[in-house]
Design brief:
Blueprint: E1 7-10, E2 13-18, E3 23-30, E4 33-37, H1 43-57, E5 61-65, H2 71-74, H3 77-82, E6 87-90, H4 93-110, E7 130-132, E8 136-139, E9 144-149, E10 159-163, E11 168-170, H5 192-200, E12 208-210, H6 219-241, H7 253-258, H8 261-278
Helix pairs in contact: 5-6, 6-8
The structure holds zinc ion.
Length: 283
């Protein structure tokens, strides 16, 4: 469900939902211009962001943030890099690109028919120019952004972005509203609950949370999704301990109400790999 314009979600803070994939792009205004959060699927889509920012706000883009490494949030980076705009992102994005995005991008560029819905011919992988390894405050001039690298969850590259004066969080795909949270491409279903718990300690009930896909949610939404993640992690640990094969795992009606069976299978594959590697905690 794409927006035809920017939606104000707080003082000088905007969200725009773009198709394909209903991906959220954020925008934070400051005295030096706009800070843009996430860059969509390819350079042409990133150009659309640049045009839409110019049209609505008539300010330069001062900085770009990536919420995590996945293609729908980073494959437009190169346009901003070419313009000399700094790109902030989790310090492990470069490694994630090498392990996941680069092999997939090369395969699709060599054989576009393998994923015909992707328009990646022009994509040149561009990792953040400002890698973030610990909680960092970025001074925009008259307001601050807090960048908080999260533990392994949706990926090992998730970055929570908080705008304290507006009470707004951009959380990437650690939270999804328009569809269920996605596994695969380097997800950590067993670490995810701990990530949400660590975030809940920082999130106030009046804060507004912008998911990577979907409309703004609140703290209660995160708590409810945490309960499902806890149940999923317990299901996977129990099944793994009982040596139940991935395809034989039984899921509760509650889990199947949030995730289609094939999503849960992806979670099980990733979860089992981590349990085999790291023992019973899986992380
Ligand atoms: Zn996404």
């Amino acid at each position: 469900m794409a927006d035809s314009t920017w939606t104000q979600v707080g003082e000088g803070v905007y969200q725009r939902r773009y198709d394909p994939m209903d991906v959220s792009v954020g925008l934070v205004l400051g005295p030096r211009g706009a800070t843009v959060i996430d860059t969509r699927n390819n350079p042409a889509e990133a150009q659309e962001i640049i045009n839409d920012v110019a049209q609505q706000f008539a300010v330069p883009i001062a900085a770009v943030l990536n919420t995590h490494a996945h293609y729908d949030h980073t494959f437009g980076n190169q346009l901003f890099a070419h313009a000399g705009i700094p790109i902030y992102g989790h310090h492990l994005i470069t490694r994630h690109f090498e392990n996941f995005e680069r092999p997939r991008l090369l395969r699709v560029q060599q054989d576009p028919a393998s994923e015909p819905d992707k328009s990646w011919a022009e994509v040149a992988l561009t990792p953040p120019s400002v890698p973030i390894a610990e909680s960092t405050t970025v001074d925009l001039g008259d307001r601050e952004l807090q960048l908080i690298p999260l533990g392994p969850g949706h990926t090992e590259t998730d970055l929570a972005i908080f705008i304290p004066d507006a009470g707004i969080w951009f959380l990437g795909d650690i939270i999804e509203e328009s569809g269920p949270p996605m596994f695969g491409s380097g997800s950590f279903p067993l670490g995810w609950p701990e990530v949400l718990r660590s975030l809940l300690k920082l999130i106030d009930p009046q804060h507004v949370l912008i998911p990577g896909h979907g409309q703004a949610v609140d703290r209660a939404f995160v708590s409810a999704q945490l309960a499902r993640f806890d149940e999923l992690a317990q299901t996977l640990r129990t099944a793994h301990a009982a040596s139940i094969a991935v395809d034989e795992i039984q899921y509760s009606a509650q889990l199947l109400a949030l995730w289609p069976h094939e999503f849960l299978r992806e979670a099980a594959v990733d979860g089992y790999a981590q349990l085999s590697q790291h023992g019973a905690s899986g992380v």
